[in-house]
Amino acid sequence: MLPILIGIAPFACVAGLAGTQNGFSVIETAAFSLFAFAGAAQIAALELIGKGAAAGVVIATALIINLRFIIYSATLAPMFVRASWRQRVLGSYLLVDHAVALTLSRTVPTAPNRQRLAFYFGACVAFWSTWQICSLIGSFLGSLPKGGLIAFAVPVSFIALLAPQLTERPKVCAAVVAAVVATACAGFPANLGMMLGTSAGLASGVALGWRKAGKEASP
Fold it and tell me: What pLDDT band is residue 129 in, cutting at 50, 70 and 90?
């Protein structure tokens, strides 16, 4: 987990910084991080709350960002067949992309589920601990007066996360459409512009992806 944790620490700091930069106290930011623990969705929710978005918009945005966890859960389900309900609840709370990838790549499918679960929870706890500590550090930084690099840390972090993903035409199309629609609708109430931009980007990216897949499948 060490290489992953080194890379995720700055992102966790940004999550904490996003809280205090959007009107949360250090304690409230820490509590939100413990409750939500949702990475990009956590930062997006903090930004929306800070801008006065309606609760429904905040929840819908977080759900859309985290839809991928449905697939992750289905992938890990065989490991939890004989797990207790406490292990299932804890496993769902700790679920993160990196722990799933590491568990699937570093454990043998034929190994006893008990061993695979132990590996999964070990990876998750290491990630969770690093995230909470670095998020707390970031919240203290965010409590400093706004200005300079601190004020730009959250949007810059999203750009850094997005840029490496723009490797295919459907993804580029989705990003461009989402940016144009969100910017054009920026004046809408309850930060509806972000939701419209996200929906338009997803629709265009999926449509172009289907078209590309159809061309590749045709003789």
Answer: very high
Residue 163: count other Cβ atoms within 10 Å of its Cβ. Answer: 10
d(CA 207, CA 46): 30
Cβ atoms within 10 Å, residue 178: 22
What Rg, from alpha-carbon coordinates, does the chain have?
19
Same domain, 116 and 28: yes
The reply to whether 115 and 29 lie within a common domain is yes
Query: Do 8 and 55 sit in the same domain of this protein?
Result: yes
Q: Are residues 136 and 170 in the same domain?
A: no
* Rounded CA separation 152/28 (Å): 21
Given a contact cutoff of 8 angstroms between Cβ atoms, the answer to whether 48 and 60 are in contact is no
Max Cα distance, the chain (Å): 61
Residue numbers of the domain that contains 202: 166-219
Pairwise CA distance, residues 56 & 48, whole Å: 11
* Residue carrying structure tokens 């289907």: 210
pTM of the model: 0.68
Q: Give me the number of domains the chain comprises.
A: 2
Question: Looking at this protein, which amino acid is placed at residue 19?
Answer: G
Dist CA 9 CA 19 (whole Å): 16
